[in-house]
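Recap for those who missed Tuesday's class. We walked through two folding examples back to back. For each one, the amino acid string is listed first and its predicted structure tokens come directly after. Nothing is annotated here on purpose, so try labeling regions yourself before you check the end of the notes.
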Amino acid sequence: MKTIMLTLLLLIHPVHVSLTGIDYDGVNRIWSVFVKVWSDDLEADINLGLSNGSDIAGSAEERYFLYLTDRVMIMEDGKPVELELLSAGVDGLEHRFTLQAKGRKGVKNVTVMNRIMIRLYEDQANMLLFGYGGTEEGYRFTVTDTLKSYLVK
């Protein structure tokens, strides 16, 4: 009976989660980023526009780039890196994106911001896998916790 009730609750209440992986190649100073989100949630969040209230317009790829750079940011010592969208694809019910950015020399602090779908769902969880200097660390962003800083030197 408990299993049936739990299954019904999960069907009634969908999971609101995204997955982001960020990895730094220190030799080439390259940030590699991947993002996975549910397609229906992505479209709903894009339709809300940018954080500053502007609409997200353009081709599908342009809209995805504007959305992702508004919702996900990497800052080195407080300065945002310039992300470039390398690929965008759909795999069944989810969208997958790959981005890249050039890093700076001598960085001491890296801050990651993730605000994917936080205006859609109060229970939104944005999972992060952060890799830097041979170590990996996981983190769970929430609607009220959208920043995570790492000391890297």
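Example two. Treat it independently of the first, because the proteins are unrelated.
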Amino acid sequence: MTENSSFRRQSGFSLTLLIIILLVGLLAGVIGAVLGASLFAKQGPAGVQGEKGDSGSQGPQGLQGVQGVPGINGTDSILQIVQNRNSTTFATDSYTLMQWSNASVDDSSLKTSIIVQAGSKLFVQFSASHRLEPPMSIWIRIVVDDLYNSSKYECSTGPPASGTYQFPGHIEFLTDALNAGSHTIAVQFYLEAGSSPILERTLTITEMRQ
């Protein structure tokens, strides 16, 4: 009875061991087949691309940029430029002190007339050099049609200064819109003290539309 029982237990153990070995072998075969297929199998052709999906909704609007610099008005234009230059010395010792005098009396280039279109403006510039010995003082201004005059520039020197000095001067004047026709531009000076000679000088007149 004991021997039969022992034999049956051994037979059962052997059968169990055999089943385990078979299962391990089967599992190893399956794993090997899968690995072999992944190593040696060729990739198939790519499938047809799917349809494009619908576009998403528009994003929020960005911030407004900084405003640019305004451009030049397309109606602005320069119609003509007239320039008179003189490098001779203009002596003023014969003129009366304390009153405005026309420089054109001795220098015709400092008075000129031009014909302009209706609505044009005149931009007038005058530059000159002045020689002064203390005490001397001279004022300069621009006059248009004996009706409109610019502000003035002044060159002066006095005690305790001594010796001879040379000063530059420059002035500009923009008229209002003018009537069509001829307009006269002149340079005037005012001797406050002494008699300062006027040296190199330039009168420039520009007709412009705005």
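Answers for example two:
The beta strands are 77-86, 100-102, 111-116, 121-132, 136-144, 148-149, 153-157, 165-174, 181-193, 198-209.
The longest helix spans residues 2-40.
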